[in-house]
Each structure stands twice: as structure tokens, then as C-alpha cells.
Amino acid sequence: MSICSTATATSVPSRAASPLYLQDDTGSTCSSDSDENELESRLLPDSHRRSFSFTSAPRWSAGGPFRRRRRGRWERGSWRWAFRKYVLPFIPKTPLTILFTLLLLTAFAISLAHLIIYSLNPDKQALPWRGYCTIPNFSTEPPPTHLGPYDSFPILPPNGTFEPISFPPDNLETLSPAGVFIGVFSMDTGFERRSLIRSTYASHPRSRNGAGDGDGGVGTSRTVVRFVMGKPRKEWERRIQLEQEAYNDIVILPIRENMNDGKTQAFFQWAAAGAWVPPLYFDNYTTVPQNLSYTNRTAPAPRLSQHDPIHAHQDMLTGNPKPWVRPDFIIKADDDSFVMLAELEARLRVELHGGPLPRQYTVPPAPLLVAPPVTPGQSTVYHPPNDDPLIYWGYLVKNRFMAGELYALSHSLVDWIANDPTVRDYVRGAEDQITAFWIRWHPRAQDVRWIRERCTVYDHPKSGTVYARGFFFPSEAERVQKEIMYDLDRWNKAKEDALRIQSEPEGYVEVFGPRGVTPPSWVLSTVTAFRVRYAPPVPDLPSNYSLEALVEGSEMSRLRKNNATMADEVWRNREGRARQYRGKRVGGTTVIHSIKKHMWFLEAAVALLEGDEYTEAELAAQAS
Q: Which parts form a coiled-coil structure per UniProt (predicted)?
């Protein structure tokens, strides 16, 4: 039997036929050599040929995938044609066009960055700080929520006239000092800034006693400064422990360190139970607050810090110190703020002994922000303390909240914040704005006195913010007030003349009211300019001259290159401390904020705490 016949007789193949090749066996029952060659030629890639027939189509062209492939090839071809037609001509090909394109893209990126910065920057308009230092507050009501952010003077003066701001009042020294607890927010790595604070405003006589002869520290005899931080990191625990043993002025909250994640509420919660201040050491005051709910709460005098009031140290030396009492005010402050303690205490003292101003808003008050739903355990009935003041003091920002560099809350408000369960559930966010929300949620929110201090609280002149201006003293405040009152008188006269002849007032500026405008001259500073980085008026000034150039209104700050040779004469004729304070103890700068560099902090310390009472020129003039 031949191989051929055996293959033909096999009825069932040993494996399935390959799907790649179908052999036509109609002409023969056995493959010949030519057939094998034909098979090999058909399987070779180079010899493979596609055939076309009207009667039979290839399997690969019968279904949908072929149509999709043709459509895909057509779309890709269209895109290539569009790219060559409309895009390729604009692609730079020469070195000059490539350089020009790179410059154009760089300019676009810079412009986009500036646009984003401008959009995110909340301070887009210069502020009329000169008006702040002249026009008093006509109301202590919470600002209505419908007020615009730049409605600086929304209330018309009662009876159309007013007297410029004057501080201190004549009876200041007859009022009993306020108890003030200042919590300076810090962190474990901030040792150098804490050391600067300890050696400057926390202990310096000019900060605690005031200008001139001062008051011997009586006013700040109930003012203490403590540093507040969260739990230090493991590698810092030993250093913080040693620092606390050395200075005894650190409060460590039982939370992780943070800024806007509940630290402020944790501080107020601690302060409601753990903040104490010295009692009244003197009884020669004609006015002392009565019937305060916390008057009789006392605690043994603690171990003192080196910068605690001198009268507390003297009381400790007696061997039988008086017990400490609850503070009238709890203050949250940043460590980049420079605080004049006597100035701060004097202003809080006046508010402690004062009362609310008459309500001035003629429109119905806008609905207050609604507090979150009452949580389980929160009381819906509020029993107010007897005569506890409700005071929220600070720099009012955009008619919404007191700026976080420093704000003060009276004891009753802190006690409520510490114990209200709703407040504890809403602690995340910008802490100064969150605090304002809490105050608006208070059961007696309409009775809270919002005390705005926008004249003596400002940013360091080199900070470049909208709140920056030169170091401020009462002598410059007087000069500013004269200019502002002159402007108001001139505009009022123009309005009266226009009404008399029934015409439009020429040169009239409407300052007051919800839509009052800001006069350009009211934002000017002799030291800084809005959105302009600070530069000395004259290059290469000596250090004492350059510091004098940072004083608002000083002749040194007005020098320019064309009269730089007058620097020595201007220095000789500068104002001494007695002239700057007009012979008063307080009335100048209260807080300087945004001190981002230690050198800036030292500049503020020298400008406010050092300097002679009388310059050589003033002494010579007195002698003659």
C-alpha cells in the first residue's frame, strides 16, 4: 500500500485542519510536488497576493471592523490635513520666531500669575486710615451683614457734627485697672521670637508704664503675658520643658499644634478655667466695676514669671500674697505682633467702665448668621450674668471680623465659647473669622459691643500690606485730624453753597453713609505706599536716621534725593518723646502687626521703647 492510498483511506484526520489554508482536493486524491510548492508559495509573505472577485469577498472585508478601520483612517487623515493647514504654519521654525514665542509664553505666565494673586488677594483697595484716626465710632452695634467691605464710615454723624477722637479721657487714672490676660500664640520652634517678646514689650517700663514719667506700672499691674502652644513634637519636648522651668510663662494645650484647626477654641476653653490675673493692689479709685459674676472667684497666687507685673513681685515678697482673680479680658495675640501693654490696658479699661453707644442704624438690622442646629445637650435657654460686659475689641476688617493679630473678648464671652457645644463643633477655618461667627451666634449677639480700633493698630511699615504705615504717635494724630477736619469743613461748605444756588456741589466728596467714597488724600502715608515695596527715602542713611524715616509724618520720612543733604538738620530737629506724646502717658500705637523678620521686631522695639524724652535741640531751646 502506498503512502498516497493510506492517506486517502483515512476517514478521520488526526487533528483539525488549519483555518489559515483551505485546500481544493477536487482534481486529485494526493498532493504532488507541484502542490507542495504551491502551498509553500501561498504561505510565504512575499508571494501572498490579495484577490478581488465580484462573487466572493474575503472574510476580513465582510464585517463591521473594516468599515470602522476605513472611518478611522479617514478621521486621522482629516486631522493631519487640518494640522498641516491651520497649525503647522504657526509653529516657530527659525531661531528668531522661537525666541519670540518663548518671550510671549513667559509674559503670559507672569500675567496669569499676577491675575491669580490679584483675584485671591482680599485687599484690593487702600484704606482711609487718616479718617480712622479722626472720626470716632458712632455705634458699638454688631455691623450689619449688608454692609460692604469698604464701607468705612457707614453712619452719618449725629446732628451732622462731631469732635475728633481724643484719647485718653481726663478721668482715666480714676478708673480701676482692667484685668488682662494675653495669650500669645506660638509654637515649639519659636524660642527666638518668645525671647524677643520677653525682653521687650512684656517687661519694658515704657510698655508697662507708658510714656513720660508713666504710672509706675499701676495700670498694667493686672496684665500678664503667656505663650500658648499645642503639644510640642517629640524632639522639642525636652527644650520646651527646660524653657518652661526657666521662664514659667508657657501654656501647653492638650492638642496638636495648628493654627486654624481648633487651637483658638481650645485656648478659650483653657482660659475659662485656667486664666488668672493679679487682684487690685490699690483702692484709691473712684470707679470700680460692681456685681460682676466672676468677682469672687479666686485662686492662690501662682509662681511668677520674670516679666509679670512688678507689683505682683512685690506682693509675693510679703510672704502672704493676695489670691489672683479672673481676668476681665482674655486676649488672643500673634507672635508677629508688637503690643504696647499700657496702651492696650488703657483702652480696655475705658471700655470696661463704659457702656454701649446709642444704636444708630436706621435700616432694620439684617438677619444675623444662623447658628447650626442645636446639638444634643445644648441649652436653648440663656441666663445672662448680672452685669458682665459683652465686649469684642480689635481691628475691624471689612465690617466682618476683628483681625487675628490681636483681639480681646470679655470674660463672659470666653466663658460662653468654652462651654457651648455648638461652638465646639465649628472650630475649623480662619480662626479670626470663626471667632466672629461665634460672637454672632451668641444668645445676646445684639448686645455685644463691637469696639473698633483702626487707628493705633496697624502693620509694620516694611510689611507691604494695605494696613501698613509708619510708626504712629499722638503728635502726628493731631496733625492728621486737623487736615481731615479741614477737608470735611470745605466739602460741607461746598454742599451748602450748591444748595443755596440750586446746583451740583463742585468738589464735594460724600464720605459718610453705606456708599461713601474714600478720598485719595485720606489713604496717604509719608512712609509707605499701597502696593509698593518699602524703600528708604534716601539711600545709605545711618541706622538712627533710617529708623526716624519709619516714623509717620516725620521730616526724615519726607526727604528725597534732591534734598538729601538736609538729613543732618532734619535729625537735629526731630521730635523727642515728650513732644510726640504731647505730655500724656498713653494715646499712641497699641499694636504693630505683620512683623515677619526679627530685625523688623527690633525696629519696632527701638522706635516705641527707646529714645530721649527731649532731643538736644529741644533742651537747648528750653535753656534759652
A: none
